[in-house]
């Protein structure tokens, strides 16, 4: 009986993994369920809303500190599986290439108000080395966004790009736009 249960459990895990992988591979398709179609470029320049939030290390980071920097904001939820996958890729494709620059920053804003332990767990699972800020639901509201989204703030403090699709689906576009902003 135990052998049958183990085989059944193994089949369930394998099946769940297959469904998850299918969702990840189709998430960026035009018909993918994570897509929220819309124009990601503001027609009129929009000043990025101010925020000042605590890090997991008891410091604070504010948007004012990012003056004259290109900043990528990653709004995430600590329990969001797509956010975890996105964070791994954000670390590799958006943080690491320019981490030594003093005119650039990637900041994660936890928008589901998880506690310090939840964010530390998120960091451990994803390997994210960029700052993770806590209690960011009001910031997500101010930016009119949700979890699993990327926003670029330019050096002048204006929103340059506001993603309407999953962060993992927008990495190439954000990388390209950051590269252009940093070169100018």
Describe this entry's structure for a reader.
With 184 residues, this protein is of the alpha/beta class. It folds into 2 domains: 1-33; 52-183, 3-Layer(aba) Sandwich (Glutaredoxin), CATH 3.40.30. It is built from 5 helices and 7 strands. It has helices spanning 2-26, 81-95, 116-126, 137-142, 171-183, and strands at residues 52-54, 60-62, 70-76, 104-110, 132-133, 149-153, 159-162. The strands form 2 sheets. A 5-stranded mixed beta sheet has the order 5-4-3-6-7. A two-stranded antiparallel sheet has the order 1-2. A hairpin with a 5-residue loop joins strand 6 and strand 7. The longest helix is centred in the first third of the chain and has 25 residues, at 2-26. Mean pLDDT is 84; it is low at 12-26 and 30-39.
How is the main sheet built?
Answer: 5 strands, mixed
| CATH hierarchy: architecture of the largest domain | 3-Layer(aba) Sandwich
Indicate the CATH class of the largest domain. Answer: Alpha Beta
Shape: globular
Whole-number total of structural domains: 2
Overall pLDDT score: 84
Uncertain runs are 12-26, 30-39
Quaternary state of the chains? single chain
CATH homologous superfamily annotation of the largest domain? Glutaredoxin
Q: Whole-Å distance between the termini?
A: 67 Å
Rounded radius of gyration (Å): 18 Å
Number of strands: 7
Q: Give the % helix.
A: 25-40%
Question: Looking across the biggest beta sheet, what order are the strands in?
Answer: 5-4-3-6-7
Q: How large a portion of the residues is in β-strands, by DSSP E?
A: 15-25%
Helical element count?
A: 5
Helix-strand string = HEEEHEHEHEEH
């Amino acid at each position: 009986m135990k052998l049958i249960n183990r085989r059944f459990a193994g089949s369930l895990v394998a099946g769940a993994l297959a469904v998850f992988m299918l969702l990840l591979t189709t998430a960026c398709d035009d018909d993918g369920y994570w897509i929220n179609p819309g124009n990601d470029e503001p027609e009129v320049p929009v000043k990025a809303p101010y925020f000042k939030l605590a890090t997991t290390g008891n410091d604070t980071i504010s948007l004012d500190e990012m003056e004259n920097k290109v900043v990528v904001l990653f709004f995430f939820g600590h329990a969001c599986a797509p956010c975890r996958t996105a964070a791994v890729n954000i670390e590799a494709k958006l943080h690491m290439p320019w981490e030594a620059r003093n005119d650039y920053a990637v900041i994660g804003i936890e928008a589901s108000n998880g506690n310090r332990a939840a964010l530390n767990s998120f960091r451990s699972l994803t390997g994210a080395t960029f700052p993770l800020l806590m209690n960011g639901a009001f910031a997500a509201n101010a930016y009119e966004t949700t979890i699993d989204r990327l926003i670029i703030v330019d050096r002048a403090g204006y929103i340059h790009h506001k993603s309407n699709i999953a962060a993992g689906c927008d990495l190439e576009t954000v990388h390209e736009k950051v590269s252009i902003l940093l070169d100018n």
